[in-house]
């Protein structure tokens, strides 16, 4: 039996940013990095069954294509697997009628390493079709048979590298492995007359989740021997490895986020989790170096209000160089503090950089333009005329998934009122970033 590969190493893919696909040289470097001396890293591929109709979701669109933050659910799962640079191929099984839509998603969100196969009428048949694509070296296929294959539902978007590595490592040793979770409800067995026959002791049972991983030959041979009944009604790949391959899969404790999107409530939960994850970093761009200026006080109040969020500040003159760094850190929330001017020059520069970075292809980027309205120095009507440009400009940039709105904070005012305005401003900023509500683009809010 092959020795276990080394423990998980830092992801080389991270240095490229989780949403970017590593180059071939980085993949090779990652493999070399992850390969202890003398041990060969297994060739790993993934099969994603995505051919269901999502009946339990109760909407016409199959749930894998339902939008979350205006992006199809399946795209998040693909992104999660693409982050893992040692998965060389990702085979997705979709129905013929959804093939073009799937190709469009791959192109729009710049997914890589994806191959498409026709789904089957059941989940097992879809998976089997995916395995066939990996098993047979068709003349024009760029796919090759992997040593280990991951099977993961396309509607489980929150899968991390660590659990993938655990199931793959275990599959190499045991032949099969799968993620499990504690049961939330007790499992019961009803009798023919619809009454309780018996219940299972919940603590002694687990829920089978995904990802699962198998030595390719183990699961492929199991599917080839599968009865029609199993292909039609089965729901558990680990059971096929046991029944047809006599392999007892290694069970790996998974994280709470491995759940499968099945009902409509799961879409709302997925959107909430994604919003929370992309709101963990705020970049504050100041247009003044004056450390004593009120704009820097807003930074302090924001840090105080949002103690779990990373707030980094930048000056426009450094923005270009620094922004590349921020983009690679996956920052999707920008607060531009304008104390010196109410014109749009700085905002336009930032928006142009964000567009060039393609950052807003995957997630909506929030840009909040904060104006300290020194109503004593500039006639109010002249300033408002300037500021009202935001409405039209915001409509324009919304098309590129950038959500722009304005925030006015009166200034100067007595210390207590100013502190109150700053706190109100921080609350408004936090809400705009957390909610990412496209209905508010172009609005001018007042703290
Ligand atoms: N013929 C099928 C049926 C299901 N799946 C996929 O298997 C995964 C898990 O199945 P499930 O949650 O049951 O999806 P649906 O069958 O679409 O849901 P429902 O049972 O509510 O119709 C999903 O990614 C689904 O697209 C598939 O590839 N081929
Ligand atoms: O949890 C799982 C174990 O492999 C599968 O995702 C689940 O069984 C799929 O069943 P269904 O397609 O009916 O949702």
From TrEMBL:
Ranges of residues in domain D-ribitol-5-phosphate cytidylyltransferase C-terminal: 280-426
Keywords: Cytoplasm, Nucleotidyltransferase, Transferase
Residues passing through the membrane, by range: none
Alphabetical list of InterPro entries matching this protein: IspD/TarI (IPR034683), ISPD_C (IPR040635), ISPD_synthase_CS (IPR018294), Nucleotide-diphossugar_trans (IPR029044)
Matches recorded under Gene3D superfamilies: Spore Coat Polysaccharide Biosynthesis Protein SpsA, Chain A
Pathway annotation: Protein modification; protein glycosylation
Compartment annotation: Cytoplasm, Cytosol
Superkingdom as given in the UniProt entry: Eukaryota
Reaction(s) catalysed (UniProt annotation): D-ribitol 5-phosphate + CTP + H(+) = CDP-L-ribitol + diphosphate; D-ribulose 5-phosphate + CTP + H(+) = CDP-D-ribulose + diphosphate; D-ribose 5-phosphate + CTP + H(+) = CDP-D-ribose + diphosphate
Tagged with keyword Transferase: yes
Region of interest: Disordered: 1-38
Polar residues biased stretches: 18-28
Enzyme Commission no: 2.7.7.40
PANTHER family, per the entry: D-RIBITOL-5-PHOSPHATE CYTIDYLYLTRANSFERASE
Sequence similarity: Belongs to the IspD/TarI cytidylyltransferase family. IspD subfamily.
Described purpose of this protein according to its UniProt entry: Cytidylyltransferase required for protein O-linked mannosylation. Catalyzes the formation of CDP-ribitol nucleotide sugar from D-ribitol 5-phosphate. CDP-ribitol is a substrate of FKTN during the biosynthesis of the phosphorylated O-mannosyl trisaccharide (N-acetylgalactosamine-beta-3-N-acetylglucosamine-beta-4-(phosphate-6-)mannose), a carbohydrate structure present in alpha-dystroglycan (DAG1), which is required for binding laminin G-like domain-containing extracellular proteins with high affinity.
Subunit structure: Homodimer.
UniProt-recorded name of the protein: D-ribitol-5-phosphate cytidylyltransferase
Species in which this protein is naturally found: Felis catus
Encoding gene, per UniProt annotation: CRPPA
């Amino acid at each position: 039996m092959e020795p276990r590969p080394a423990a998980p190493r830092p992801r080389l893919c991270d240095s490229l940013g989780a949403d970017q696909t590593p180059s071939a040289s980085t993949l090779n470097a990652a493999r070399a990095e992850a390969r202890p001396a003398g041990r060969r890293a297994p060739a790993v591929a993934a099969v994603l069954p995505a051919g269901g109709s999502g009946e339990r979701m109760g909407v016409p669109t199959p749930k894998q294509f339902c939008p979350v933050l205006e992006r199809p659910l399946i795209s998040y799962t693909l992104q999660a697997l693409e982050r893992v640079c040692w998965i060389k191929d990702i085979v997705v099984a979709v129905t013929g009628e959804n093939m073009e839509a799937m190709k469009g998603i791959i192109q729009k969100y710049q997914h890589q390493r994806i191959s498409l196969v026709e789904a089957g009428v059941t989940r097992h048949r879809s998976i089997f079709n995916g395995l066939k694509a990996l098993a047979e070296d068709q003349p024009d296929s760029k796919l090759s048979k992997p040593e280990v294959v991951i099977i993961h539902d396309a509607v489980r978007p929150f899968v991390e590298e660590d659990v993938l590595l655990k199931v793959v490592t275990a599959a190499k040793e045991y032949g099969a492995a799968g993620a499990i979770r504690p049961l939330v409800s007790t499992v019961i067995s009803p009798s023919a007359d619809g009454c309780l026959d018996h219940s299972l002791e919940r603590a002694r049972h687990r829920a089978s989740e995904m990802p699962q991983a198998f030595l390719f030959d183990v699961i492929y041979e199991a599917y080839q021997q599968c009865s029609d009944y199993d292909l039609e009604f089965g729901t558990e790949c680990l059971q096929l490895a046991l029944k047809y391959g006599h392999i007892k899969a290694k069970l790996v404790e998974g994280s709470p986020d491995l759940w499968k999107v099945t009902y409509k409530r799961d879409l709302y939960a997925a959107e909430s989790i994604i919003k929370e994850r992309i709101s963990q970093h705020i970049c504050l761009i100041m247009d003044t170096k004056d450390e004593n200026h009120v704009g820097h006080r807003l930074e302090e109040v924001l840090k105080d209000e949002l103690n779990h969020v990373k707030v980094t500040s930048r000056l426009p003159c450094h923005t270009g160089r620094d922004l590349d760094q921020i983009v690679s850190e996956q920052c999707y929330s920008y607060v531009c503090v304008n104390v010196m001017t109410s014109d749009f020059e700085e905002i336009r520069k930032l928006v142009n950089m964000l567009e060039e970075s393609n950052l807003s292809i995957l997630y909506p980027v929030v840009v909040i333009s904060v104006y300290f309205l020194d109503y004593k120095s500039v006639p109010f009507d002249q300033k408002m005329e300037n500021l009202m440009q935001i409405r039209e400009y915001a409509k324009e940039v919304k098309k590129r998934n950038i959500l722009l709105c304005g925030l006015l904070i009166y200034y100067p005012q007595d210390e207590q009122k100013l502190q109150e305005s700053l706190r109100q401003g921080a609350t408004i900023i936090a809400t705009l970033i957390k909610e990412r509500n496209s209905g508010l683009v172009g609005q001018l809010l007042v703290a």
